[in-house]
Structures are given as C-alpha cells and as structure tokens.
Description:
Elements: E1 4-7, H1 13-24, H2 30-35, E2 37-44, E3 51-60, E4 66-74, H3 83-97, E5 102-108, H4 112-120, E6 124-130, E7 137-144, E8 150-155, H5 162-172, E9 177-183, H6 187-191, E10 198-199, H7 202-209, E11 213-216, H8 223-233, E12 236-240, H9 247-259, E13 264-267, H10 274-285, E14 292-301, H11 314-317, H12 325-337, E15 342-350, E16 353-354, E17 363-370, E18 373-382, E19 387-394, E20 397-401, E21 405-408, E22 411-415, H13 420-435, H14 445-463
Parallel strand pairs: 4-5, 8-9, 8-11, 9-10, 11-12, 12-13, 14-18
Antiparallel strand pairs: 1-2, 2-3, 3-4, 5-7, 6-7, 14-19, 15-16, 15-17, 17-18, 19-20, 20-21, 21-22
Amino acid sequence: MNTTIQEASPDLNPSLAALLGQALGPIGDMERFNRARKWVNWAVNPAGATVVPGGVAVVETPADGTWYLWLMAVRPDLERRGIGRALFDAVEAAARRSCARCLRVQTYRRWERMLRIVKARRWMFVGATLGARNDQVKEEWVFPLRPTPLRMVVVGANPEGRGGEWIAAIRRDPGLAELVGVCDADAHRRAAWLGVDCDGDLAVLLGRVKAEAVILALPHTAYADARRICIEAGVAMLHEKPLACSMTELLKLHDQLIEKPCAMVVGVQRRSHPSYVFLRGQLATAKVRPATLTIRMRLGRPANECPRDWRVDPSLAGGGALLDLGYHAMDLAQFLLDAPLQVVACNLWTFNAPAREGEIETAARVVARCGPTWVCLDIDRHGGEKVEWVELALEDTLICANRETVTINGQTAFACDERWEAALQGRLAELVMVRDQPPRPPDLWDQLGVLQVVEQAYSQARQVGLGQEGTRHG
C-alpha cells in the first residue's frame, strides 16, 4: 500500500483529533494535543480513490531531548496495512535529525498491536505502572538515540555470574553500549575476556579507557570502595543490589551523592515487572487487606557449591541469604502492601543445619506484620528447583503470582512474556538515558526501608540463637 508521511500543520488538528477519537476515544487534553507535533499518514481509502489521513502519531518534544510518543492511532478501516510501522519510521527519523536523546512510549498491555510493533523495532521495556483505574497495567518502552554507544566497564566479571550476564546484555545491542573494559581482582577471570581491556585496579582502568559508565556486580562488601572510585571519576553506575550491607553504609552513600551527584540505576526490577504491578493493582482495588502474604524465592543452586564462593564467605558477603535473595523478597512485599514490614521472628539455616554465629546463612524464614497482614518470606539459595512464588489470601480469594502469570482462585487473570534478558536490556537503556541527563542525587529511601527489615530480621534471629533445630520448610 502506497502511503505518504508528513508532519501535520496546526490547521489539521480538528480532523486528526476526530481520527484519534475513532480509535482511542475523545482526547481529554486538547491544549496538550494542540501543542504537540504530529505526523500524519496519507492513505488511499479502500472504498475509493480519496486520499485520507490514515493514521496519526502525536509526539511531545520537550527541550530536554526526551521525545514522548503520546498518542497513535490508525483508521479502523485501514488497520493491518503497515501504517503504524510507517509512522514509527517517520517519528524515529525525525527524532534522530533533531538529535533527541530518546523516544518513550507508554501503552496498556491490552493494546497488543502497539506492543508487537515496539518489540519488533527493538524498543526496550523499562517498567510498568498502574493505570488511572488501578486495574490496568501500563508499560513503558524506550528507544535510546545516543549518537555513539555508551562506553562501559563491567566490574566483577565472573563469566558464569551476574557480571557475565551483563556483558552478554551489552553485546546483544552494540548500538546502545560498548564494552570497553573489565575489572576483576581475579587474574583468571580477567583472562577469560579476550580482546577487552582488563585490569584489577578500577581507578586506573576508568582513566585508561575513558569510561562513561560502569556496572557494579561485586561481593557485597566490595561495593563501598568501587562506588567511591566511580563517584570521584564522575561515571554513571548501574548498581546491583544491595546498595549497602547496613543502613549506616547506605546513609554514608547518600551523603556522598549529595556532595557530588552521580547518575545511578539500581538493579532491583520486581517493582516494575508487569505481573507484580498487576498484582498490586488487585490489592489496591480490594475492599479488604490480605490476611496473609507468602513469598518463596529459591535459587536452586547445588548444595555442594564451592566453599570459596564469596557468598559463603562472611568476610566478603556482609550477610547471607537475607541480604542477597531476601532483599528482593522484602522489597517486593513492601511494594505490594505499600507499607513497611515489622519483623516478628526470623530463623536461619546454613545448608541443612541451624546457622551458628559467624556463619553465612543459605536459607531463612522471616515472619512479619504489615498492618492486619501476616507476611512469611521463605528464602533459600541452595537445593531444590528454582522457585519464585507469591501467594495472597483475601477472605474467600486466593491470588498467586510469579513473573509469568497471576491467578485468582486458580483462574489466570494476567500473563506476560517478559524475560530476564529484557529486564537487563531495560536497565541498560535506563542507564544510558540517566547518564546523559544533568546529575542529581538518586532517591535511596526505598532501599533504606529494605535494609531496615534486613537488620530487624538478623536482630530477631540472634535473640533465639540464629538457627533452631527442626525442618527448614513446612
């Protein structure tokens, strides 16, 4: 089908508003609509030879270079003819000519055609929020337009660990970021990355490769020194959780970033995952608070994991399962319930035996309260199959969720297909965009709340002698 794309003049606003109304309903903010730029697709009406506006894209173009695709619609009688894709081509080309930093779009999951287009065009999923009615999931996708790839260093480069996953994510999209260096204290790990500038000294490496950003994927106790070097060098950070091993350490980081602001993205993704956002919406519209919330997270690592792994070394880990995997569970619980947890009891195990003072726990169970809701967090870094499961009981309703589905009384209410790789790419895209904005101190208060729960749990565990005899799971 032959089509022509042109930027529309203001005199076409009434006809374009009518076209959008056919597909999306009346425009609520006409002043905003009139201010925005619009690209229109001129198409031949299938009923005759009349040239008509077949589709329109409405784009806000603020001075900061972040273009926002606010509205897009295609005439119902001209759908499935490539008009939407042609409009995306025109908007992306115009954004590049104008040296925009990125394009953003927010779309409800029920608009499947829009989602198919952004996925096919390699836009990146960066998160989800609740719509105005608290029951519809709105996703945000972004298309970075940086003229050159972001020069990036990965710190903590275990090929089989998180550092290796981040390196793979960088290499999946060479137009977004470029791996210019790898830093690791282990010479054998550095040797695994042939063709990449490697060094055990982060400060030296950052200066040599002229890095613009780093990904920190380190043992927990190593973050403080690496962060200090990055802040002094003025490079952006993508920081794996936890941000700190204690509230005191986190408050010190806050002071450092106030004194010298530095762009930072935190690697905690569940708050913006579509299935958990949908679940939060169900709770927000429920007439009663849940009686119980249970979260199970198990990594399924072999129980005979090499004892030299940093996660079982107290001098490197700074905490065991609670600070590592439990951090995600606590953050998710507080996100779903929209309130802080108060720990009632905690029990810790090292493999199949009760944990002792000075040992790193590999499993934990935390019982907490959040208003009228009892919360149970069941955490295990070893043994069994990998599991992530959330269960909520509300009167006669049982809601279960993971990163793929949400079921209500056994019936699927929501499903999504976002994979771990998509989450990594989204965090990279977010880092690229944050890096190019004026630096400002990040909001660390959610992380402070999680660390407070971690410290409460350890305190409760010590009051009963850390671990107790008996079965781990029941």
